[in-house]
Structure formats: C-alpha cells, structure tokens
Known about the structure:
The chain is α/β, with parallel strands linked by helices. The protein has 15 helices and 13 strands.
Amino acid sequence: MLKKLPRVAFLLHNIDSGGVERVAINLLKELVKYPISIDLVLFEKKGNFLNETPPEVRIVDLSSTSSGRLRKIFPLVKYLRREKPSVLVSKLVQFNVIAIIAKFFSFIPLHILLVEHLSFDSLENKIKNDPKEKIGFLNQLRKIFYPKANVVAAVSQGLAQALEKDLNMKTGTFRVLYNPVIDKNLVTKSQLPVEHPWFEFGQPPVFLAAGRLAPQKDFLTLIKAFAIFRQKYTARLVILGEGPERQILEAEISRLNLEADVALLGFTDNPYAYMSKASAFILSSRFEALPTVLIEALACGCQVIATDCPYGPNEILVNGKYGKLVSVGNTDELADAIEKTLDSPIDPQLLKLRAYDFNSKNAVVEYLKAMNLDYLLE
Length: 378
C-alpha cells in the first residue's frame, strides 16, 4: 500500500511583489522536488508572482467579503478540516496568530511553523499610519500564542534575538531560517539583456535600487544622496518597484532637477538582469529582516551599498566585508559610499561566493527540518 504524501500548506495574504512573497515562491520551487503535496493558501488570489507558482502547487483561494483579519479564521478552519494538511507554514506576522487559532478550532493534528520577517519596532513603523491596525493588541496576541506553535523562526540572527527579547522568550527559542534566494534560474535571468538605453555600452555608471515605493525603503534619502554625488560625477539612478510613494519621489526628483538622470521604472519580474549590469546596488532601507534583494545583487556580482539598519544587511555583508554599510537616513554618508564603491570595487567573484551561502537548496533542507519532514532527506 502506497504511503500517503504529506501535505504542506503555505499561508499568505496574496502573492504580490514583496520580499516575503518572493521567498515563498523560491521555497515552493525547491519543495516540489520532494515527495510532498503542496497547497498555497491565499486570502486573496492575486499578485505578480501567480504566474511563477510551480504548476505542481495547488492554489487554494480563501477570498471572502469578510473584512478584518480575525474573520479570516473561519475560512481557514474550513480548509484545515477539509484538507487536513500535516504542516501549516505562515510567513506574515499579521496572519501568524490566525494560523494558531485556526489550528485549535480545526481539531486536527497539525504542525505549525511560524516565520517572522519583522521585529516589533519594524512592525510599528510599518503600520503606525494605518488606523485599522491595532499594534498593541497584535503584540499581546503574539506573546500569548507564539509559544503554542511547534516552531517559531526568524529570517536572521539579529531578528531572532530581538524577537526573543520583545516576546519575553528564552534565548534559542527562535530558530533561524535564512531565506532561499539563489538558484540556477536567478543566474540565467541575470544574463538576459536589459532594454534600456542607460545600460548600453559606453554609457555613464548606473546605480540601482529596488523595492516597494514606501517609507520603509527610504528612497527619498537615496535620491538626495545621489543628487550630492551627481554634483561631482556623471551618473544615473534606476529604481525598480511600485508603491504609494511614487508621486512623492517624482516630486523630489523634479525638485532636484534630476529628471534626466533618475528613472522609476516600476515592477519587473527580472531585476537580476539590471543587477548584473549596474555599477552598484543600493539598499537605503530604514529597517529590514533579511533583505533578499541585497543577496540577489551579490549573486549577480554587483557591488552593494546598504544602510546598517535592523536587521540583516550587517549580517549579509559581514560587517562591511562584502559591501559598504552606512547609517540610516544619512545622505552625506551614502553619497560618500557611492563614490568609494565606484573607485574601489570588490572582486565580483567574492560577492557571488558570499551570496551562495543563501542558496535555495540549503534553505529548503532547514525548512524541511523545521517542518518535521527531515526524513525526506534520507
């Protein structure tokens, strides 16, 4: 008699163009190589990464007209009772508590893995301007319910330590699960051409940034720093991504008379082609957890500059060994780092070797252990 394959469910809001969603897709692409039935459970079946979801993965749409996160518990409970997955992986802080509550109401044996991508401070910065969010209430629920999960994990050492302190959990409670970032597909896509005149041979240096056009990424500071650098050198800046701050950034570009040198090119499903051809990649974030995009840039052999924000850049760049680290929000320091990076680049092969530490195969092995499926590795 054939043994039934374990069913693993990944829970997300949608599969839009964020870092967490990209990580989930990378995980799924590796996990389908193992004898596992996989469901991608979405509260909204939409997003730029839908077409990248492996065909072996079943997409479960829990869309409903109900508003409010707690009301999403009921469709999730129905799914759990109906499909009886053996593992549920939740990767968004706003839904991690929901996942645990749904387990209790489903009355099924279920291994819960919660993965955190944000610290308390980062979460407060992220949603403080949204009156619908109750940050204090959410944090209390996390403190109550997280100890009831089978495994809680964070995507970097720094984040794990911060969460243990904030949640009053003993040291070592949080497992570290690095994001799966590097695979053959990334390398292949990085070698494709870029259809933009700034990347043609003989053009001035092009600096690159990518991410949601939102306050967290602090592209305003990047644009101001580039304006300082631009006073001495001919260069260009490209920012990939979309978000609510587009008009604010466009106004700043206009105010600084940089329309001819700065371009907001919107979302692309292949930022790697840009990374492999840029003079440097710049991460100007106020906070992160483990910025996938920084690792992707290293994998493309691109020079990198990053703010020393909590958490991840310092961990990835090993205290500045693999790229310049600058203070958050410091335009002069960032402008100086851009100049020094252009003058004294690091060997691209060293950058690629560092990025390989975050390859998808290694990450998936750790995820299988955290999901109590490590017997599949035998």
